[in-house]
Design goal:
6 strands, 48% helix, single chain
Length: 200
């Protein structure tokens, strides 16, 4: 759930960034979710070709091997880090420069709430739950590799400006999108998840 993670101090931030970046000084783009087709990590990887940043994928699932192969085929192995399942997503988002949701569809993505609460800028496909909250400038159609590539490129090149522009959004997320407000949405999310499971 989106409980507020403790704020990292400068030293903790530095250590965690170093763990994710190796020795490179690059922006960190983070994607969080189970490695399943609906999350469209394949689209994200294709869109990431030519982006000068480190992509950190947090999560596990059946698609892992396929996605790792795709990463190699795209020549992105040096740029992409598969972290697997982590319990410190809140802390990871604090050191990320940008969070990205590439899903074909979503209920109400908890990672969006978590990212905004951690003050992490977010770009996403225009899926339900997100498009009601994020401005159009940070959205792209699902399954649009070129569109997502351009969105990542533009966002990363203007990250400081965008971050200050979206400060009100972060504050709103911290106040409104709290655990209490999430409960009914989470229930809706679970019922959707069950439908997903039945689809097989």
């Amino acid at each position: 759930g989106a409980r507020a993670s403790p704020k990292l101090n400068g030293r903790e931030r530095k250590l965690l960034r170093a763990e994710l970046l190796a020795a490179e000084d690059l922006p960190i783009v983070m994607a969080v979710g189970r490695l399943a087709p609906v999350k469209a990590f394949d689209v994200l990887l294709k869109a990431f070709v030519g982006i000068d940043a480190r992509l950190v994928i947090v999560g596990d699932g059946d698609e892992k091997e396929t996605l790792q192969k795709l990463t190699e085929q795209l020549g992105l192995s040096h740029r992409v880090l598969f972290l697997g399942h982590r319990h410190d997503v809140g802390s990871l988002l604090q050191v990320a420069d940008l969070c990205v949701i590439s899903s074909h569809r979503e209920g109400f993505p908890l990672v969006m709430v978590e990212a905004l609460q951690q003050g992490c800028l977010l770009v996403s496909t225009a899926v339900s739950g997100v498009k009601e909250i994020l401005p159009p400038a940070l959205l792209v159609a699902p399954n649009d590799v070129e569109g997502l590539h351009n969105l990542l490129y533009v966002t990363l090149s203007r990250i400081e400006t965008l971050r200050s522009n979206f400060l009100p959004l972060f504050l709103r997320a911290q106040q409104e999108l709290t655990v209490e407000g999430m409960t009914e949405r989470t229930l809706a999310f679970y019922s959707e998840l069950l439908e997903d499971t039945h689809e097989g």
